[in-house]
User: What shape does this take?
Amino acid sequence: MRIRSLGVIDDAVVELSPGFTAVTGETGAGKTMVVTSLGLLLGGRADPALVRIGSDKAVVEGRVTVPPGGAAAVRAEEAGAELDDGALLLSRTVSAEGRSRAHLGGRSVPVGLLAELADDLVAVHGQTDQQGLLKLSRQRQALDRYAGDGVTGPLAKYGEAYRRLRAVAVELEEIVTRARERAQEADMLRYGLDEIAGVEPRAGEDVELAEEAERLGHAEALSSAATAAHSALAGNPEDPEGIDAATLVAGAHRALEAVRSHDPALAALADRIGEVGILLGDVAGELAGYADDLDADPLRLAAVEERRAALTALTRKYGQYGDGIDAVLAWAEQGAARLTELDGDDERIDELTAERDALRSELGGLAQALTDARTEAAERFAAAVTAELGSLAMPHARVSFAIRQTEDPEGVEVDGRAVAYGPSGADEVELLLAPHPGAPPRPIAKGASGGELSRVMLAVEVVFAGTDPVPTYLFDEVDAGVGGKAAVEIGRRLAKLARSAQVVVVTHLPQVAAFADRQLLVEKTNDGTVTRSGVKVLEGEERVRELSRMLAGQEDSETARAHAEELLATARADH
Assistant: This one.
């Protein structure tokens, strides 16, 4: 990796050994920045506070060898990345403003893609992971991870049934909780539908009645106008001397008919006047019929106004979806559908209750199957971790798992007991440690010291390495709280793990660093920065001096040098 402007690091190159690499240095020298850099390359959260003061951005570049045809290589190629002699080139840039960019194989990619690749490339563990192991949820996840398909299958079936049960329970609770509100809504709908049904409105009826009321209210004026117009067109029998339009047009037509044969143009005009006479006769006839049919009955007018008032009252109450009686009819249609839905609540409650009970019974069986699978895996997992602790200077320690269910009256029925259930089952998984013979197993959160917790964490990770291996393991001071013989055993076990995977350890323990295939020293310059030359490979005399410093705080102490050389000799003998 090349690291630029990240924390105390100005510009440094970190070359990791294929086997076991130990990263050492004084406190505050920037060792943890190596872990942080790798985390950024693998899609970790970008914190602008990491950018070195005075720089506009921090850059981390890395070259990662991936197995051809492996999951990481295939995923990278699907994203358009190109491999360079079997290696992936990764880059992550973090600006001082907090913007982040990622590149993979020469292409710009989402940061999330780097995080996806991380699952297949590196397992990172530090002191925060040790604290995480104290949480019961993390202990259950660790057990499930170890169990693999043995738990994955039952857990998937359980999860599907659990989600269905939650959906049914939520719907049932909503219906029951809102029963009073829904009953009130149903009563209001029934009242409104009954009121509308009592009036029996028709579509468009309000428009028709408005036109009829207008006509009835002006019947006398309409009749007088129609009679006068008829007299003007067809004449008045009571006035024989009067001149009407029909008589005048007929005279005009006769005058032209007498001479039409002499000029076609005049003949055309005569035809048009004839058409006018016919039209006048039709209009006059319709005016006579209109006047005869016009009803000026005041009783009918009163009935129309009364009907209009009833329709208007409905419109004010139920016409919120639009104007006029058509909106009332639309409300009635929707209200009837909603009332049908509300009236079916009792039946729906019965259906949902039956479905909930059936799902609870099914979930109880699935929860028990999941418990059985975890119990079987827990025995194997505990035995494997216990065996590993034997090689980590805890030969008499015993690890076990307590798997129990918390009782809950509203929970799932399992073996005659109602237990609490959640998205991951009904199990509460707790890792127990008996550090020596005769000691009762106690939760590691209460019964393990810092050094013991570190070794349990390492043992768990080594067991994982045998069941779900990744190419690289990174431990950030996972040996905290350990010293003496235990530290030697941790170094020996990490060296063994490095035979099948790449192991990178940030450590302050010389007993651990001595077992590394390569030791890197992170050191600051006088101005407090770590430059390109500030991360260097230690060999020969330099490595002895650094181990002496780690042992006694004095590089030139003869006693410390002798001890350092003895540690190196022990490590070489193990190899």
In short: Residues 345-390 form the longest helix (46 residues). The two ends are 27 Å apart (CA to CA). The CA atoms of residues 163 and 268 lie 89 Å apart.
